[in-house]
From TrEMBL:
Residues 177-438 form the Vps16 C-terminal domain. Keywords: Cytoplasmic vesicle, Endosome. It comes from Apteryx mantelli (North Island brown kiwi). It holds the Pfam family Vps16_C. It comes from the Eukaryota. The keyword Plastid does not apply. The gene is VIPAS39. InterPro entries: Spe-39 (IPR040057), Vps16_C (IPR006925). It is found in: Cytoplasmic vesicle; Early endosome; Late endosome. Its main location: cytoplasm. This is Spermatogenesis-defective protein 39 homolog. The keyword Metal-binding does not apply.
Length: 482
């Protein structure tokens, strides 16, 4: 009795399976051997003659049939996934996650049933099943993937990886020598984005004196940094860099650009006045002086015109109300404004305006007001003998085009079309703008009877132009060329 009790206790306190250790072999052969030992220990309770009997699963399908194989494969994959997840959390051996997979197989058929039922899977096949492997969770990434974030890259490799769009940390480059090698590699790669990225890193990690000194001998990187500072508006650092390089004119221009950020007109005027003394070139100094003078005149004109417009004391402001303030407007806009509202006043006489620019702007302003006498006076000059002559520095063909855009009458257009020197251009303009008298007179002077007769068909029947053409064609004193 005591012996039976001892055997029973030994049975319940013993185990055929070993606990998981890191020294266990995890290969398929060791798992197969362990399973075989478990089957042999149960051989006396299994009847070998069971192989001759038809085995039926819980669903009623014969074991080994196609329907049984499909259901069994699906259930084994699902149970294997759940078993693996739970075993990983508890720390047990992974092969113990497959008891349900082998449970519906005949134990005796695991080793000798394959010949009778070809659709059966061995335990080794089940362990190597691809479906189970696909569902297994990924425990860690390959080491090759973590290499992207390592700090073992050389400056050359780092630049190459940046060119391929990889994320690279530049913080590992701590010494000045490494940073300069990295910058040289970026410049050698001819990629402006990478050069700028490295310069931002150097700007953040180096003292500006050291950075300026090193960039002085690296002109490509220096140009990139100057452009970057201009684009980002880092004015203080840009001025420090230009002063270090002894580029006095660029320093002056950078300071001059600051007026764009000043909204108050009086403060802007005072700022421009202070810029006149900066070390500009002679030409730039003249431009800055003109800018200051222009703004000063704009302030005076704006104050007076606002008062006149509000009081309603000027007819031109009542007939043509102002659409915007003149303050901070460009020179050409201010010139047009002055020629439109203050043509007889010398508002902008102190400014250096080219003759062509003045004529174009004044012509457009006076033609818009249909002040044809002012237009005529604009092109009338006198010589030292007192004779008058019309002269246009922009060419009379352009004068005709501007007048036509402002709906000048035909009489005015014809006067200026006649002043076009080139005969072919004159004929084209006269035909285009229907200056019939000019066309008729030109063909008469050219003694071209055929062209004159052809043009007779283009004028209105019974008009004065048709009668004029008939009179010329019937003139027997004219010796026609054709």
């Amino acid at each position: 009795m005591s012996r039976a009790r001892a055997d029973e206790e030994e049975y319940w306190h013993s185990s055929k399976f070993r606990a998981f250790t890191f020294d266990d072999e995890d290969d398929e052969l060791s798992q197969l051997k362990e399973s075989k030992r478990a089957v042999n220990s149960l051989r006396d309770i299994v009847d070998d003659d069971d192989d001759d009997l038809e085995k039926v699963s819980w669903s009623g399908d014969p074991v080994g049939s196609i329907s049984w194989s499909i259901k069994e494969t699906a259930s084994s994959s699902t149970s294997s996934l759940e078993s693996r997840d739970s075993s990983l959390q508890k720390g047990y051996s992974s092969y113990s996650a497959f008891p349900k997979q082998a449970s519906s197989y005949s134990l005796s058929s695991l080793f000798k049933g394959r010949n009778k039922l070809p659709s059966f899977q061995s335990l080794s096949d089940a362990l190597s099943d691809t479906g189970v492997k696909n569902y297994a969770p990924e425990l860690r990434r390959p080491k090759a993937e973590y290499k992207d974030y390592s700090s073992d890259w050389s400056p050359k490799d780092t630049v190459r990886r940046m060119q391929r769009g990889k994320v690279c940390s530049l913080e590992r480059f701590r010494s000045l020598q490494d940073k300069l090698v990295l910058l040289d590699e970026a410049v050698a790669g001819h990629d402006g984005n990478i050069i700028t990225a490295v310069l931002i890193f150097l700007k953040r990690t180096l003292r500006k004196e050291i950075l300026f000194q090193e960039l002085e001998v690296r002109q490509v990187a220096l140009c990139h940094l100057i452009h970057f500072l201009k684009e980002t508006g880092e004015q203080k650092l840009l001025l420090d860099l230009l002063r270090f390089l002894d580029r006095t004119e660029e320093v002056a221009l950078s300071q001059y650009r600051e007026h764009l950020n000043i909204q108050d007109v009086e403060k802007r005027r005072e700022f421009l006045k202070g810029c006149i003394g900066l070390p500009f070139s002679a030409e730039d100094t003249s431009h800055v002086q003109d800018h200051y003078t222009l703004l000063e005149r704009q302030i005076i004109i704006e104050a007076n015109d606002r008062h006149l417009e509000t009081a309603g004391q000027s007819e031109i402001f009542r007939k043509y109300p102002r659409k915007a303030s003149i303050l901070n407007m460009p020179l050409v806009t201010t010139l047009f404004y002055s020629c439109f509202y203050h043509y007889t006043e010398a508002e902008l006489s102190a400014l250096q305006i080219p003759d062509k620019q003045y004529v174009l702007t004044a012509l457009a302003a006076r033609a818009k007001l249909r002040a044809w006498n002012d237009v005529d006076a604009l092109f009338t000059t006198k010589n030292w003998l007192g004779y008058t002559k019309k002269k246009a520095p922009i060419g009379f063909h352009r004068v005709v085009e501007i007048l036509q855009r402002n709906n000048a009458p035909v009489q005015v257009l014809q006067e200026y079309v006649r002043l076009v020197e080139d005969v072919e251009t004159q004929l084209n303009l006269a035909t285009k703008y229907k200056c019939h008298d000019v066309v008729i007179d030109t063909y008469r002077d050219l003694k071209d009877r055929i062209q004159l007769a052809a043009y007779r068909c283009k004028v209105e029947r019974g008009s004065a132009e048709e009668e004029k053409i008939d009179s010329i064609l019937n003139n027997t004193q004219i010796r026609w060329k054709n």
